[in-house]
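Handout, page 2. Input:
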Amino acid sequence: MRIHHHWQGLAPDARGASVAMGNFDGVHLGHQSVIDLARHAANPLGIVTFEPHPRQYFAPDAPAFRLMNAEARANRLAKLGVQQLYELPFDATLAGLSPEAFARDVLARGLGISHVVVGADFCFGKGRTGTATDLAALGRHYGFDTTIAPLLSVGGTEVSSTAIRTALAEGRPRDAAAMLGHWHRIEGEVIHGEKRGRELGYPTANMSVDGLHLPRLGVYAVKADILTGPQAGSYMGAASLGVRPMFGVNRPNLETFLFDFKGDLYGHHLSIAFVDYLRPEMKFDGLDALIAQMDADCIKARDILTAL
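Output:
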């Protein structure tokens, strides 16, 4: 998959794609249905999305809401067979374009798209004044086709990033996965921590969760993919997402213990899939009680993951 960070100056072989357009936070089943429509319309298959998320641009101080960072989104889109990812910089220039200017200058003249697919609730242009119906009319004028995809429901619930955030915040990762079509994942680089886990016999891979909507804090059974380095592969594990109350108030992070793994992961990239919520964070009377609980957590997590 090729990733482009602007709509201007593209090589001829990067133009002419059939694209799905949106923010694709989570790349859930609704997003996947939009992508499939673009896939069947023409080749190559492309995605038009925005970085940062427009909501981050307009409300930079608002609470974190993203289900996945740009790296995780790109990895998921690549798995879906996307060939061209247009990750457009959402800045003052893009935010100030009228719906017509966006359709003309970005989609038609810049990307040279042949077809665009959007969800029925898609809005675009300055002040979000353009609708999916407006996009179809502009496409007819500027030479590209438009498909408006209906919204998708699962089990009577409309699939949306908001509904997925709610399921995760309530500690229901399997309900979130039913709407996502895949396990919810946090991806990123392994960073140095305080190395307490190593002293307790449970060395963990530490990852930042800055800028992300956090699932319910606590301990999870997880599947882990090491994405880079000589030990790349898939593992089972147990992860703690939270502020480590045993050791005082800290900034939230994700600490994952990989079963049957030995090695150095610092600087490598991991993808952690949340499978089941095991328990909330707890403060123990001492290290022996903490270690006993960690032993129990790992036994339970291994049983859950083995049964999948």
